[in-house]
Amino acid sequence: MERFLITPGNLKSTAVSTVSEPNDPESIARTPISDTNKQLNLNIFDISVTCEDTAVQPVISFPRTFISLKQLSFQSSWYNKYPWLEYSIKMNAVFCYYCRHFPSHSQIEKDVLITGGYCDWKNISNMTKKHDKTTSHKNAIAKYGAWLSTKKTGSVSTQINKQVKEQVIKNRAILKSVIRCVLYCARQDIGLREHRRERKEEFNSENYDASLCSRHDVNEGNFLEIIKLLSIENEHFKTNFNLLPKNSKYISPEIQNDIIKATSKLVLDEARDQSKIEQMSICIRYLHNFKIKERFLGFVELNDLNAQAQCDGIIFFLNNVGLDVSNCVSQSYDGASVMSGAFSSVQIKIRELAQNPCPYIHCFGSSSI
Question: For 8-21, what is the mean pLDDT?
Fold first, then answer.
């Protein structure tokens, strides 16, 4: 009589073969794959290779094996009862999907569902019940669940990096608003802080709280009063501002000065000299040591009077003297359309190069009286 058996000797060529019936069929059928052939599991390619693959559960006409003088075979209905089972057609044996991919160290050496496969169809019900209750199997399922969760949400380091990036974005948004408040005061030529700092502790960025915005009894200067106004009008700003660390709210006098020092105003005018050469004068207006100063930097010879030629001359001159146009916070020219026009004028081109609002302010010194 012929039957399908798993034996150590014939696995190297094929996992399923026909052999003559031995004297004790039950003892052979129940003999698991030899421990010396544990590495054979690495060569099984008809079941899942990694945890990225789903459990392999084919539904076929399963080969029958004589066990206790009965022809027995694997039943596909066991998939529903034990979803972790996967069947190897090549070996005519079953494996535990979870324990194969997430085994414990002690489990690898002795668990046939990991190393070689199980094919005793007579006792498979008892084996699956016992295996389903083992601690190692439950741990493997937990590890698989954790792996799925990590795959969806990312690793712990990825989640931390994501939170850090989100916080950086929020902090930058707050800092932009603070910078706009400082630049507003500078453009309007108004002081940032009150004349007397009698309530010095409230100016300390470690103690300042936007919740003070409801107080109207103390005038804390233009800058902090604008911060208060933003907190009243914008709940999102107020919430994020109060979440900033107490030692880095970016509102201290030192920060205000640093912002102002990083900015400047560009003042230009052009005229023709006696030799009939068009020359453009360049001046800058800036704050230094709490004092507003204006300085003449030099002349730029112009070969053409269109907006692009004048813009190129300005940028060339600023680069030569080591000034970055991105630090410019406003522009001041005469009323000529080539300088102050709403389209393709010098002020539009400078604003594009500066990559900030950099508004145009009419130079009243060039107005006719």
Answer: 35
- Residue 42 in this model has a pLDDT that exceeds 50: no
Separation of alpha carbons 4 and 118, rounded Å: 14
Find out whether 121 and 71 touch, Cβ atoms under 8 Å. no
Task: Provide the token pair at 308.
Answer: 């692009």
Cα(164)–Cα(157) distance, rounded to whole angstroms?
Answer: 10
Measure CA 350 to chain center.
Answer: 33
330: which residues sit within 8 A by CB, 6+ positions away?
Answer: 187, 265, 266, 358, 359, 360, 361
pTM (2 d.p.):
0.36
How many angstroms separate the CA atoms of 40 and 2, rounded? Answer: 25
**Residues 323-355: pLDDT tens digits?**
888 888 888 888 788 888 888 899 899 989 988
Element holding 224 (H helix, E strand) = helix 222-233
197 Cβ contact list (under 8 Å, min separation 6): 203
CA distances from 368 to 44, 69, 119, 331, 334 (A): 93, 119, 104, 20, 10
